[in-house]
Amino acid sequence: MTIFSVQSTIFSRASVVLLSSNGFKRFSFASSFSSSAVYSPPLPKMKKRRYPIVSAVDIGGVTISRNDLVRDDDPTNNVPDSIFSKLGMQLHRRDKHPIGILKNAIYNYFDSNYSKKFEKFDDLSPIVTTKQNFDDVLVPADHVSRSLNDTYYVDSQTVLRCHTSAHQAELLRKGHSRFLVTGDVYRRDSIDSTHYPVFHQMEGFCVFSPEDWNESGKDSTLYAAEDLKKCLEGLARHLFGSVEMRWVDTYFPFTNPSFELEIYFKEDWLEVLGCGVTEQVILKQSGLENNVAWAFGLGLERLAMVLFDIPDIRFFWTSDERFTSQFGKGELGVKFKPYSKYPPCYKDISFWISDSFTENNFCEVVRGIAGDLVEELKLIDQFTNKKGMTSHCYRIVFRSMERSLTDEEVNDLQSKVRDEVQKKLNVELR
Ligand code: DAH
C-alpha cells in the first residue's frame, strides 16, 4: 500500500518488520549539479564521468562538505555521491518549479484560511539525528524504515531525514504550535517513473488548547480529528477543484487515529496524504500534556505529477529549458507538454543472488552508473535451483528525457552495471 508520498509507505503497519540490513559497500557517482553547490574538478582516475563531482553544498547558509557525508571510514555510511549532490538543490524553494509552485499554493490555502497563523519552515537541514527521524516520533526500534536498506545513514546516529515528521518534536519543544515544514526527504528505493531516492514532503502540525474543544462539547480527539479532516478536505478542493474524496483508516506510529485521504482522479482513487491525531506521548515529551494536536504529511511530487501532468519523476530534476520554461510563478496546474519521447532501450541482466542481496542495493548500483538515464528496473524472472541457488533476472530500461541514447552508450552502461554488481553485491552473473 502506498501513501501520500510517491514512494511506498514505510510507516504502515504492514511494514513493521525489520529487513536484515546488509553491510554493502558504497560506490561513487557524479550527478547533476546544484545551483548552490561548490564544485571540484572531476577526479583524474575517473575519466568517463559526465559531470563534475560536487565537493560541498550549501544548506540554509551552512556549507556541508562531501567528506562529511560520503565517508569510507564508517561502515554505517551509505550515502553515495549521487545523493550528496542533491542536497543543496532545494527544488521546493524555487518559485517557478512545479514543486515550489505547489508549496506556495498550499501556503496560500493556509494563509487565507488561518489568517497566517501557520508558521512556515522550508530551510531546515535534511541531516538529522536518528532520534529526530525515528525516536521522537515513536518509530519502533525494529521498524523497517530504520534499516540501512531503506534509509541513508551518515553514521550510526545521523541520517538524511526520510520524512519531514523528523522536525515535529524539535519545533514543538521550541514553542511552535502551528506550522508547515517543507523539505527534501531521502529514501533508498526501487526505480520507476514515480520513485526517486530524493523527493519532497510537507508536514503540517496544529496544537489545540482545552478552550478550543471545551466549547464544542466534543472529546478532544474527536474535535482534533474533525478539524483535521475539514482542513484537509478544503486543501484538496483548493488544489484539485471539486473532487470526490474518501477517508481511509490506517496506521502511523505517530498518530492515533490515523487516516489517509484519497481523491478520485482520472478514474482512480489516489492517495494524497497521511495524517492523524498526534500520539499524546509526543506532546507530553514536549511539555504539552494538556493539549491535543493533529498532523499531516504529504508528498509534493505525487501531487505535482497529477496537477501538472508530469509523466516521470525524473523531470523534476532536469535543467532542460524545454521543461523548466513551461512553468511560471503562481501558475498551479499548467499542463506539461511533452517535448519528445525518446526511445527506450531494454537490457536484461541475470545473476545468482547471495543472502545479502537486496533490490534497493541493486537499484543504487544502477543509479550510480546510469544516473537519470535509468527509467525503470524490474524483476522479470526468478527461480531457485535444486542446489538452493536463487537466480534473478532484471530488465533495465534506459531512456533519456533529453535526447536519444546511442547503442554504444547503452552497451557501455550495461557493461559497467555487470562489472559493478559482481564487485559490490556479491552476486554471480549468469
Ligand atoms: N511521515 C509520514 C511518512 O513519511 C507521513 C505522515 C503521516 C506525516 C501522518 C504525519 C502524519 O504528520 O500525521 O510516511
Automatic annotation (TrEMBL):
Pfam families to which the protein is assigned, alphabetical: FDX-ACB, tRNA-synt_2d
SMART domains membership: FDX-ACB
Biological process, per Gene Ontology: phenylalanyl-tRNA aminoacylation
Annotated ranges, domain FDX-ACB: 340-430
Reactions catalysed: tRNA(Phe) + L-phenylalanine + ATP = L-phenylalanyl-tRNA(Phe) + AMP + diphosphate + H(+)
InterPro entries listed in its UniProt record: aa-tRNA-synth_II (IPR006195), aa-tRNA-synth_II/BPL/LPL (IPR045864), Fdx_antiC-bd (IPR005121), Fdx_antiC-bd_sf (IPR036690), Phenylalanyl-tRNA_Synthase (IPR002319)
Key word Transit peptide present: yes
Gene Ontology terms, MF aspect: ATP binding; phenylalanine-tRNA ligase activity; tRNA binding
Annotated Aminoacyl-transfer RNA synthetases class-II family profile domain residues: 125-338
Listed GO CC annotations: chloroplast; mitochondrial matrix
Annotated localization: Mitochondrion matrix
EC number: 6.1.1.20
Entry keyword set: Aminoacyl-tRNA synthetase, ATP-binding, Ligase, Mitochondrion, Nucleotide-binding, Protein biosynthesis, Transit peptide
General function of this protein: Is responsible for the charging of tRNA(Phe) with phenylalanine in mitochondrial translation.
Family affiliation: Belongs to the class-II aminoacyl-tRNA synthetase family.
Record's protein name: phenylalanine--tRNA ligase
